[in-house]
Each structure stands twice: as C-alpha cells, then as structure tokens.
C-alpha cells in the first residue's frame, strides 16, 4: 500500500528536495504540493492525503494554523499532519502539538527520518526529532494526573513512546506482540485522558517518568 503525501512549503526548492527524498521510497507517493497555508488546507481537504508534511513559516496561514484546521480536536475527520521545519522555536512546536500534529522533525534530520516520520504518522504513531524531544516536551502542562496507576508494562510502553518509538519498535524492544502494544497504548490513553501518542509523551516527561 502506497502512502499518499501532501507537501506544504513556500520554497519550491525545498518542496522539490522533499519530493525527491520521499518518492525514492517504494511505499510513499507525493500527490500534491502547496506553496502557502491556505492552498495546503484546500488541497488537503480535497485530496485527503494519508499524511500532510507542513512547514511552519508560510504565507497567508502558518503551519500551526494549518495543523489546527486539518488535525485539531474539533475537526470531524482529522488528517495526519507532521511539521517539517528549520525553526525549532518552542512557540511553534508547542502550537503545532497542541493543534494536533502527529509529530515534528527538523529539515536537517536526514532522509531516513523524514521517511520514517511519514510512515509513523500513517501508522498512527508519532515521530519527533530526537535532538529536541526532551527540551520541548518537558515544557508542557501535564495531560492528566491519572488516579489509576499504570502497570509496570504500561510504564515501559509510555517510556518508549516518549522516546519516539513506533509500535513495531516497542514490540521488538519489549518482546511482545504488536497487538499487545496497541492494546497497552489504548489503555494508557484511557487512563491519562490523552488524545494521542504525543500527549502520552508529554505526560511522561512532566510526570518524571523519564
């Protein structure tokens, strides 16, 4: 199955570079490009790509506003948005994550991480550039102070999620079935009242689990 991707960046050279990287992957196809935020929202709503790769700084609407419009908690059928940016400023990343972004990576992270970010978002996981994970996630207000304690295994899964691991990687690291990982993630989200894996990671850092 091919993962369809929308690229949104105001620089044509950057879009071309991202397209070359992604289309070199057998399982990823770029179906559209947008040069600004308004165009990105319109194309995303029309084409319904599997993943939207969105830059932060764009004309008309920035990446945070695009994320809220496509992936926010009030969107009936949210799309999966990954922020790809040169700017790792706290205000941008906080806004994107709170707006529903599935993850964010820096443009200098390399081709492999870019492709993995697309695959992770498509699989319902989240991928964050390792260089900024701890610095950023420690700043968030806790998602929830759960009254139902996590089991030891759930705590292991939470730690792995906070380190950016996908479900497949967690299954391999903990020597458990993929279906078991998914079950743990669902249970953790319920206990923490977390909407997604990003909020689980936020809780992990804020609670001192890591």
Automatic annotation (TrEMBL):
Tell me which InterPro entries the record gives.
CheY-like_superfamily (IPR011006), NreC/VraR/RcsB-like_REC (IPR058245), Sig_transdc_resp-reg_C-effctor (IPR016032), Sig_transdc_resp-reg_receiver (IPR001789), Tscrpt_reg_LuxR_C (IPR000792), WalR-like (IPR039420)
Q: Which GO terms describe its biological process?
A: phosphorelay signal transduction system; regulation of DNA-templated transcription
Instruction: Give the species this sequence originates from.
Output: Kribbella albertanoniae
> What SMART domains does the database record attribute to this sequence?
HTH_LUXR, REC
Which GO molecular function entries does the Swiss-Prot or TrEMBL record give? DNA binding
Q: What UniProt keywords are attached to this protein's entry?
A: DNA-binding, Phosphoprotein, Transcription, Transcription regulation
Taxonomy-wise, where does this protein's organism fall, top ranks first? Bacteria, Bacillati, Actinomycetota, Actinomycetes, Propionibacteriales
Q: What is this protein called?
A: Response regulator transcription factor
Which parts of the sequence belong to the HTH luxR-type domain?
Answer: 143-208
Q: Where is the Response regulatory domain?
A: 4-122
Q: Which residues carry this modification: 4-aspartylphosphate?
A: 55
> Does the entry feature the keyword Transcription regulation, yes or no?
yes
């Amino acid at each position: 199955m091919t993962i369809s991707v929308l690229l949104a960046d105001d620089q044509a050279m950057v879009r071309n570079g991202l397209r070359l990287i992604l289309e070199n992957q057998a399982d990823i196809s770029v179906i559209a490009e947008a040069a600004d935020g308004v165009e990105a929202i319109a194309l995303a709503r029309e084409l319904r790509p599997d993943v939207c790769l969105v830059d932060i700084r764009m004309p008309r609407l920035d990446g945070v506003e695009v994320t809220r419009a496509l992936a926010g908690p009030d969107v009936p059928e949210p799309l999966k948005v990954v922020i790809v940016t040169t700017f790792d400023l706290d205000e941008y990343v906080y806004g994107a994550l709170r707006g529903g972004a599935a993850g964010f990576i820096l443009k200098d992270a390399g081709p492999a991480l870019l492709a993995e970010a697309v695959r992770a978002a498509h699989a319902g996981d989240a991928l964050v550039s390792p260089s900024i994970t701890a610095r950023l996630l420690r700043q968030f207000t806790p998602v929830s102070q759960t009254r139902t304690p996590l089991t030891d295994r759930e705590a292991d899964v939470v730690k792995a999620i906070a380190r950016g691991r996908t479900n497949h990687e967690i299954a391999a690291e903990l020597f458990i079935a993929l279906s078991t990982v998914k079950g743990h993630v669902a249970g953790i989200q319920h206990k923490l009242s977390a909407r997604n894996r990003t909020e689980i990671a936020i809780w992990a850092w804020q609670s001192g689990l890591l």
